[in-house]
Design goal:
Length: about 210
């Protein structure tokens, strides 16, 4: 349904996020808030790292993700297991790259989660965050607000039979500190060379940072 409601643009956004890892040593990759494993699978398909570990607190979503992984034949390359983003169950300096797609805005304590991702990165490791954001352009911001706050909740309730999920989505995006504010948070958590790349007129953004 997320693919449907984004008109499948989210797949393009994930590919662009994966491209941010090109040229980075990728023996071990951690995908935080992996959900059904879409980003982990995209990384494996395009970059073929040594191993990808996906963590999430939703066993139900990961059960679907494991089916996807098996269908793609990636059981040896991708492992999905329970893990809390605010208490990542791995040692310091473990991963060459850490990724998270559409998950940071759901962290109860974002700085704690970002700090944990910084901790488990190796020196020289890269963080890639893909997240929804609010367009700066007034015209596109108007279209975004109309779709997200008027159309999406109605369609979501009708098709998913979940009255909460697609009302929560626009509220969480609205409250997320996107753009320069989120860049500042990454820098405050220790990341260097932080960059922000708006996508699709600012509907989503890719944030990258490095541990030096």
């Amino acid at each position: 349904m997320n693919h449907l409601f984004s008109f499948h643009i989210d797949k393009i956004w994930r590919r662009k996020a994966v491209n941010e890892l090109r040229g980075q040593p990728l023996d071990k990759v951690l995908d935080v808030a992996t959900g059904t494993g879409d980003l982990a699978i995209a990384i494996q398909k395009r970059l073929h790292p040594g191993h990808i570990t996906g963590i999430d607190i939703s066993e139900g979503m990961m059960a679907i993700g494991r089916q996807k992984v098996e269908k793609k034949g990636f059981e040896q390359q991708i492992t999905l297991q329970y893990g809390n983003s605010e208490a990542i169950p791995y040692n310091d300096h473990t991963f060459d790259a850490v990724t998270v797609a559409f998950g940071v805005r759901n962290f109860e304590h974002p700085e704690k989660g970002l700090g944990e991702m910084f901790r488990v990165l190796k020196t020289g490791g890269r963080l890639v965050v893909l997240e929804l954001s609010i367009p700066e352009n007034r015209f596109f911001r108007g279209i975004f607000h109309f779709y997200f706050f008027r159309i999406l909740p109605v369609l979501g309730r009708w098709l998913s039979k979940d009255a909460h999920a697609y009302s929560y989505l626009p509220d969480s995006v609205q409250s997320f500190p996107h753009g320069a504010e989120f860049r500042n948070r990454l820098e405050n958590c220790g990341f260097s060379e932080v960059k922000v790349k708006p996508l699709s007129w600012g509907i989503a953004s890719i944030y990258t940072g490095k541990k030096v």
